[in-house]
Amino acid sequence: MTENIEYAFIAMPTKLTILLDIKCRSMLFTLLQLHSYFADENGWFFRTNADLAEESDLSQKLVVATIDTLYQYGIIDVRCVGKSNGKHSNHFKINFERIKDFEQLEMEQLKNPEVKIRTIDYRKKGYTPSYLNTTQVIPNDSQSANNIDIIENVENKNVIENIEDEEYIIDSFRTKILDLVENGTSIPNILITLASGDWDCYCFYKKELYNNDRLRVEFANNRELIEELNNKYCPQ
Fold first, then answer.
1. Distance CA 236, CA 233 (A)
2. At a CB cut-off of 8 Å and minimum separation 6, what does 190 contact?
3. Which residues pair with 79 in a beta bridge?
């Protein structure tokens, strides 16, 4: 079947893809794509967190959290490089043998919610990515010579600590909304859940519905509900 395909595409491991939540899935796809282009003979390639955020369409906080999740499950290896011009860089390697372990699971096993791979909760107080706490060896290859200053791993924590509060709040809103969507919650029920439990997140979601061309019709369809929720839950 694939021999008739005349264009390049990135293959995703079927069973591991089922296990990953949508955020980790996005990061693994991004890393697999980068591996196909940039990996050296030993399988290593590097990228800044800022680049990964742009390429995966995740916030920098989620970049760190998803990388940490994949690292803790042994799906990738990470070597901290350092920081240059305000950008944190790491070397990455895909552990294909570990991915093979997941691919050997039976389909019935994948239905068990306990084996689901979910993104680490980076919002917990004092969270630090686990790959910063291990001894890292910088590979001596041509990709290291890109004017990246070698510094202590602890400097990489700035990507967690120095993101402005506004971005942190918005990212928290989006995570909360995404969790509701992933659980199959309908838009009316999302509005009700947020309005009754998190007014600021409700206002953010309402604005997102209105500003999104694809979802604006949902805003119009739920206008009466929105007005009812505004009157019922708006803080006085």
1. 9
2. 177, 180, 181, 205
3. 91
Return mean pLDDT, the chain.
80
* pLDDT band of 215, cuts 50, 70, 90: confident
**Per-residue model confidence as pLDDT tens digits over 122-131:** 888 888 888 8
Query: What's the pTM value of the predicted model, to 2 decimals?
Result: 0.57
Nearest Cα residue to 70 out of 50, 52, 83: 52
User: What are the Cα distances from residue 177, in Å, to 16, 24, 62?
Assistant: 24, 17, 15
- For the record, the structure tokens of 219 come out as 């805003």
CA nearest neighbour of 53 among 41, 62, 40, 65: 62
Calculate the CA 91 to chain-centre distance: 17
Maximum alpha-carbon separation in the chain: 64
Q: Is the dihedral of CA 31, 35, 41, 47 positive or negative?
A: negative
